[in-house]
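Thread title: Can someone regenerate the structure for this chain?

I was given the following input by a collaborator and told the matching structure tokens would be attached. They weren't. Posting the sequence so someone can regenerate them.
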Amino acid sequence: MNPSRQAIEPGAAIGVLGSGQLGRMFTIAARRLGYRVHTYSPETDTPTGQVADVEVVAPYDDLDAVRKFASQVKVLTFEFENVPAATARAAAEKTIVHPDGQVLHITQHRAREKTFLRDNGFPVTPFALVHSLEELTTAAREQNLLPGVLKTAGFGYDGKGQVKVRTLEDLPAAWQAISTTEAVLEKMVDFEMEMSVVAARGVDGRVVDYGVIENIHANHILDLSVWPARIPASAGARAVEVAHAILQKLDVIGVMAVEMFLTRDGQVLVNELAPRPHNSGHLTIEGHNSCQFEQQVRAVCGLPLGGVEPLAPASAMANLLGDVWGDRPDVDSPHWDLALTDPAVKLHLYGKASARKGRKMGHLTARAASTQQAIDAVLGARQRLTVQPSR
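Best answer:
Regenerated them for you:
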């Protein structure tokens, strides 16, 4: 049997490249199952490092340090996809790596990701790869890609590295703004909803999912997620079918979120892939039998995947950004006690040292008898965080 497909028993050490909040929640799930966790990143006192057994602080391009780190764990995984390819290859010299570095290579680069999806017959928005203002102008005109969104080819998330363009006259300023030599121009989608399917695939090739999650963004950052998504059953079935096929085609071992659009005419289009747990899947922690982080642990360690049965008819998650600290984050603190007056609401904070506008600091979740009740619970709790005292 391939050693990368054998079960790694509880008690072993798992390595995580990256040290943010996704690694933190992964570590909590892993330790509950009896594993030790080592984390590697250039930073110290990180969200993951605060709860891990070992926190290694070194640059991602220090390949000797990466090899040493990898040699001390039984399996290694990622908590974000923008780990350099050379880092993943160096780690693979010393231990099992899930998902495979090739998955990262594709998903960390918009051009490679879009090309993979298109070439394998998955439904994507019309797009063109461009390397100059001249190519951009030609593609926009000849392929009818305006209005559209111009995106850097690599290392973009939460709306970073992208500019909306509506007319040919917008293109020179947009090209200068993204300041790159490789970009993707995507035709803007007239969508009814943004949604995601978070799925896990085990070493045996079995895929499980949580159905379709409805996502609402504010300023390009996820603001609210709702399960189940309020969409026709046929669209939900299509979204799940596409997600499963993508995980199988990429031979993912681990968790992947497939972000999608539901267009106003009922089409399901793939927007982006995230080869790790996803912000929208945080509601599975309280909402489902085995959350996305436990599934990641089970998958990369070669254990059978957990059940994905819902624990209530509906659940919701509201992000907490640094904005809720107000204009004086070092002085003011949100009203945690008021937020938690609703016993159905759960609070998750990420242990970040300082709050700033737009920074993800935590989230609130709730499960309820209906989607609207779950939404009202988390939004009400978040609103109470910033209530002004009566005079």
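The mean pLDDT is 94.
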